[in-house]
């Protein structure tokens, strides 16, 4: 089943995208900061969410890991 039709998989993909973008922005800030609009702007926005809401994102990652490991 595709991640678009399974809600838990969709949340997992979104969390992975946010975490990956925030991690890559720490290494390559100039690449992320110059692409603030368009399709690549989505990655900049995900990196911003990962940086500013990091305690909430980390909590969501732990909850998602627990649900994938023990409830599925």
TrEMBL record:
**Coiled coil spans:** none
Protein's cellular compartments: Golgi apparatus membrane
User: Which parts of the chain span the membrane according to its record?
Assistant: 6-24, 54-71
Gene Ontology CC entries for this record = Golgi membrane
Q: Which of UniProt's keywords are assigned here? A: Golgi apparatus, Membrane, Signal, Transmembrane, Transmembrane helix
What does the record say about its membrane topology? Answer: Single-pass type I membrane protein
Q: Which InterPro entries match?
A: KISH_domain, Ksh1
| Any Pfam family | DUF1242
Q: What does this protein do?
A: Involved in the early part of the secretory pathway.
User: Hey, which family's this protein in?
Assistant: Belongs to the KISH family.
- This one is known as Protein kish
Organism field: Bicyclus anynana
């Amino acid at each position: 089943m595709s991640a678009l039709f399974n809600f838990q998989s969709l949340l997992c993909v979104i969390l992975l995208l946010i975490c990956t973008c925030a991690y890559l922005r720490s290494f390559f800030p100039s690449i992320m900061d110059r692409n603030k609009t368009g399709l690549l702007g989505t990655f900049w926005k995900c990196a911003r969410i990962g940086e500013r809401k990091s305690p909430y994102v980390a909590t969501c990652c732990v909850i998602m890991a627990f649900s994938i490991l023990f409830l599925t």
